[in-house]
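Subject: complex prediction, re-run

Hi both,

The earlier run crashed halfway through, so I resubmitted it with identical inputs.
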Amino acid sequence: MAQVRLYVDDALGAGQPVTLSRDAAHYLFGVMRLSVGAEVTLFNGQDGEWRARVAEAHKRGGVLEAVEQTRAQSLPPDLWLLFAPVKKARTDFIVEKAVEMGVRRIVPVATEFTNSERVRRDRLQAHAKEAAEQCGGLFVPEVAELSKLRDILADWPDGRRLMFCDEAEAETGEGSSSARAGRFAAASERGPWAVLIGPEGGFSDRERVHLHGLPFAYVAGLGPRILRADTAAVAALTLWQMQLGDWT
Amino acid sequence: MAQVRLYVDDALGAGQPVTLSRDAAHYLFGVMRLSVGAEVTLFNGQDGEWRARVAEAHKRGGVLEAVEQTRAQSLPPDLWLLFAPVKKARTDFIVEKAVEMGVRRIVPVATEFTNSERVRRDRLQAHAKEAAEQCGGLFVPEVAELSKLRDILADWPDGRRLMFCDEAEAETGEGSSSARAGRFAAASERGPWAVLIGPEGGFSDRERVHLHGLPFAYVAGLGPRILRADTAAVAALTLWQMQLGDWT
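This time it finished cleanly. Structure:
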C-alpha cells in the first residue's frame, strides 16, 4: 500500500513535532487506521519531503514527529495558470491538472463568456492540496480569488509574460496593425510567465483584440480541433513546460 | 443554444434520408424536444459535416434529411493511442481526451501493473462517439478490444513507430547497450505512429527493458512530476501533435 502523504503548515526538521488538526487526525487514525509508530510522508512546500512517525494518536488530534528528509525541496517554475471557471467537476480537474503539470499559482478569471459567476476558493485550494498529496508533489500552488480578466490585465505585473491560447489563432495576429503580441512558438524568454486558457465559448472579439495588442502577450494555437477547457489547460501547460519550463 | 450534433452510420449526401435508431429518436425528440423542420448537424467520419433537417419525428424513430455539406471531411493523423486502463472515470476521460486531441484508433492494453482486467469496449466506443459529437469532431476513433501489451508489441505492424513515456526516462536509455529505442525529441519521421501511456504504477522493469530494446520505439519524458494517466495522455499527445502531427 502506498504511504500516506500529508501536506502540513508546520515547519519540518529532524525531531520536530507536528500537531495534527482534527481533520488530519480523523483521516490518519479513523480512515487510514494508523497507530503510534506508523510512518507517513510530510511536506510543507518549503522544507522538502520528510519521513515522519506517529507519536500520539487520539480521536480528535495527535502528534507526528519528523524523522528524516527524504527529498530536497523543489519548486515548479514561476508560472501562473489563469483559467475561466467552467462546471464544477471540470474546474476541479483543471486545478488538479495544474498541480500535476507544475504551476506556482492558480488564478480563476471571469471573461465575457464565462458562465460560472462564483468560485469557492477554499474548496479549490483544498483540492490543490489533495492533488499535491496524491501526485507526489512537494508544492501546493496558491489558488487566488476570482478576478475579472480585464482587471488582471490592466494591473499586470512588470516582467511577467503571458501565453494565451486562441482558437482563432490562425486568422488573427500576423498582419494586423494592432497586434503587438508575439508568437509563443518563437518565445525564448525565461523568467515569470502565465498561461491563460479561455472559456469553452472562447474569448470575445473585444478580448481577443485586447490580448493581441498587449506587448507582454504571446499567442499559441492548440491544433485544429476544439478542446475542452481542462484538455486545453494540460495541452497549453505541456507546450510551456517543454519550451521554457522544467521538462527540458 | 448550440446545435445538436449527431454521428450517424449512414452515407451523407444532398437529399439523402437518414433513418434514426430508437435511441437517437428518443434523444432528438424526447430529450432535445426537436420537431419536424428543426435543424441538426450530422457527420459519419467519411462525408464531412452536414446540415440536416428533421423530416419525420416519432416517439421511437424518425427520418432526417441531409441538406448541405458545411465542412469537408478531415481525418486526424494516423496515430494510435495505447493506454493501460485505470479506474472507470479516468478511463472515460482518456477516451474523451484522445478524441479531442485527434487520434485514429484507441487501444486499451494490459501491462504487468495494470489493475483493470476488463474493459467494456462498447461503452468506451459510445463514449468516443459522444466526445466527437460534443467537441465538434468529424471523426470517431475505433476503440479496440483490450490486448496484452506484449502481444501487441510482438505483432507490431511494419512501418508504425511507437512513442512511449517512461517516468524513469532520465536513468535509462542512453548508454545502455541493449537500448535501441531513439529519443522522441529528435524524431522527425512522419507516417503511422502510436503513443503508449503506462499504468499509474509505471511499467515493470522487464517491460521497460523490452521497450527500450525495440528498434521502432522512441522514448519521451513528461517532466519531473508524476502525472495521472489521463494527464499523461493529453501531455504525450500534445508532444506528438506539436512535433509530428497536425498542430504545426
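The two ends of chain A are 32 Å apart (CA to CA).

- K.
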